[in-house]
Amino acid sequence: MSLRRTGALLAVVAVVAGPSTSGVRAQDSDSEIVRRAKTKVPPVYPDLARKMNITGVVKVQVVVAPNGTVKDAKVVGGHPVLANAALEAVKKWRFEPAAVESTGVVDFKFEPHQ
Question: Is the domain covering 3-110 a CATH 3.40.50.300 domain?
Fold first, then answer.
């Protein structure tokens, strides 16, 4: 099923993670912003990834229910060591309510602390 047929595209505004999750950013991967994230939980940079100096982007496809909760999420790209952290974080996000379900992709960028 196409993104257009599943409802409006997911809106996510870029965020910079705080000190406990330094080096992780989440942002939308589509230019059409329809729904806004009300609560964003940043992923924790995995210790193994930090020790191995693994960086990169993890793409997570999410389905947001009309009430704003994440109904489903699956990793569609990125390093396996980073994937679980991104998946667990996005499942805790909350979005603005809408009349229909929304689907979109959220990008989590993992990079070493500057």
Answer: no
Q: Which of 1-15, 43-57, 80-94 has the lowest mean pLDDT?
A: 1-15
pLDDT tens readout for residues 54-98? 999 999 999 999 999 999 999 999 999 999 999 999 999 999 999
| Cut 0.85: pTM above it | no
Angle at Cα 105 formed by Cα 68 and Cα 112, nearest 5°?
Answer: 110
- Report, in this order, helix, strand and coil percent for the chain, each rounded to 5: 20, 35, 45
Residue 26: strand pairing partners: 15, 108
Transcribe 73-97 into DSSP letters: EEEEES-HHHHHHHHHHHTT-EE--
